[in-house]
């Protein structure tokens, strides 16, 4: 058995999810839609299709894993779980993209993460039961985000010896290992885990329980703990848009909190499709760069016509995608923690 029967049977083939799916929007083909992929999964489960069937191979990788199909589904299909089970089977051993294999090997080794330096530099233990998780991508690429978060929330504990949360594994065909890494991290970070990465928050919440995990904006808003000042550009209040994190929005239902925080320090501008995927999608932008850019393109056009100074991300993968896409334009991409830090200056 590849899939959890109950999960696979839940789909009633109504098609409500089709307009929400970014890959269906790109191709207009049923096979690239959530309903079409569930039909493929059923064919794999019953043996009608072999795992090396070209459509199965292509669609298991073309899917962004953004889970935009979940909140719109009247039958409560847990598509994210189905995709994890599909990739566990489809991407076994050598069938897993080599780049995904390399990335998973790197982030699962804590000594490599320590080489990135930030854990030691930020490590501090104050006996509190609320810890800031230093995500793997953020540690390597955007240490300024962790520094900004700690300036805004100086009371958070930052234990040393942090590892990977396992989200990368869960989304790339190793969901068992992904769950194991989440449990290990849960033991190393006692009490509430606060994270600035929407993707990690959703994975940890699914593995450790929703009450153990707070995304940074949720945690700040609960405490009314944002800076008093405002972000200004050219003598006026800055105009700031948000790009939702797919897993934060579709997996945890967190949408209001980052918007409220932006409104507290700047003029908030809602992008027409702030909730749709930016194409970063974890490893997707590395594994399928051309498709990733195609998903991003209409979003860049929206950002340009919105006339904003900043676009804010709440996940490091989205931040990387937006920074690359906005290179050479007057709009800057920032993490929410960095924007709030600007307001606190
Ligand atoms: S996944 Fe949900 S919305 Fe999509 S076809 Fe199946 S039941 Fe309908
Ligand atoms: S996860 Fe995203 S890309 Fe994949 S089927 Fe659902 S909406 Fe489409």
TrEMBL record:
Domain 4Fe-4S ferredoxin-type per the UniProt entry, residue ranges: 1-31, 53-77
Keyword hit for Repeat: yes
Transmembrane segments: none
Gene3D superfamilies for this protein: Alpha-helical ferredoxin (1.10.1060.10)
Record's keyword terms, sorted: 4Fe-4S, Iron, Iron-sulfur, Metal-binding, Repeat
InterPro entries: 4Fe4S_Fe-S-bd (IPR017896), 4Fe4S_Fe_S_CS (IPR017900), Cys_rich_dom (IPR004017), Helical_ferredxn (IPR009051)
Pfam families linked: CCG, Fer4_8
PANTHER family (UniProt xref): GLYCOLATE OXIDASE IRON-SULFUR SUBUNIT
Entry protein name: Glycolate oxidase subunit GlcF
Gene: glcF
């Amino acid at each position: 058995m590849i899939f959890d029967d109950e999960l696979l049977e839940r789909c009633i083939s109504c098609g409500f999810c089709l307009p929400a799916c970014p890959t269906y929007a790109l191709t207009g083909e049923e096979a690239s839609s959530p309903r079409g992929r569930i039909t493929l999964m059923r064919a794999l489960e019953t043996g009608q299709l072999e795992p090396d069937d070209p459509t199965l191979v292509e669609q298991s990788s073309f899917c962004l894993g953004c889970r935009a199909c979940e909140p719109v589904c009247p039958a409560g299909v847990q598509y994210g779980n189905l995709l994890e089970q599909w990739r566990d089977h489809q991407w076994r051993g050598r069938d897993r993209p080599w780049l995904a294999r390399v990335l998973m090997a790197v982030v699962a080794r804590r000594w490599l993460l320590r080489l990135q330096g930030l854990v030691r530099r930020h490590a501090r233990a104050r006996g509190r039961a609320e810890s800031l998780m230093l995500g793997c991508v953020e540690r390597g690429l955007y240490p300024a985000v962790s520094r900004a978060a700690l300036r805004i929330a100086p009371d958070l504990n930052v234990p040393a010896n942090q590892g990977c949360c396992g989200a990368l594994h869960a989304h790339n065909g190793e969901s068992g290992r992904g769950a194991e890494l989440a449990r290990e991290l849960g033991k190393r970070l006692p009490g509430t885990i606060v994270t600035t990465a929407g993707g990690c928050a959703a994975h940890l919440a699914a593995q450790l329980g929703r009450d153990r995990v707070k995304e940074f904006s949720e945690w700040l808003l609960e405490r009314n703990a944002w800076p008093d000042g405002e972000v200004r550009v050219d003598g006026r209040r800055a105009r700031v848009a948000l790009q939702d994190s797919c897993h934060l929005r579709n997996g945890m239902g967190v949408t209001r909190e980052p918007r409220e925080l932006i409104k507290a320090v700047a003029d908030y501008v809602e992008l027409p499709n702030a909730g749709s995927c930016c194409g970063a999608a974890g490893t997707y932008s590395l594994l399928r760069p051309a498709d990733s850019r195609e998903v991003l393109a209409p979003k860049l056009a929206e950002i340009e016509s919105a006339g904003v100074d900043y676009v804010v991300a709440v996940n490091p993968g989205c931040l990387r995608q937006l920074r690359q896409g906005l290179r050479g334009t007057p709009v800057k991409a920032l993490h929410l923690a960095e924007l709030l830090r600007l307001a606190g200056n």
